[in-house]
Amino acid sequence: MNYLILNGMNAEDTFIAKINEFLKKKFTDKDIEGEILNLYEFDIKPCLGCFKCWIETPGKCVIDDYGRTVAKKMIQSDYLLYVTPITYGGYSAELKKAIDRSISLLSPFFRIYHNEIHHEKRYDKYPDFIVIGTLSEQDENQEEIFAELVHRNSLNNFAEQVSSQIIYESDDDRIVQNKLEECLNIVGEKNE
Fold it and tell me: Has residue 191 been placed in a domain?
């Protein structure tokens, strides 16, 4: 078992860095190895929308930068975590670039799933999905959009187990810890 945390923060964000350290400790306590990718540290260009990763180079983006590596690490993980400041109800720009570039992990063909059209799987195994968003304060509109985004992404990424939380910068350490522990309840269930 392994995990991958895609950290969508910017270099000045110490709040999310603290969350990442807590997550790392919890995975270590469960003897699960993995890594945290601070996406701002890498050159990841935006998706071109060319769909060559579906047709010409199946499963591999034609842009030769770290985005290719991120997509490979995503599909090889057992637990994929997004940690991001919530921006207009969505992910940060850094995280969004990495997510867009991972479209190569899906097949260009479609299937009907719960009366909706979704892509078919390209691979046999996809990671469980954990998403942690942060807000400076409660914002019902952003939280509603974020919850729907996480749900839709979990469907498109074939996640068997999904968990998400929103953490406010005003939350004290105990509340943050409780929210993160609740979010991590799905971790290790496959081993038990």
Answer: no
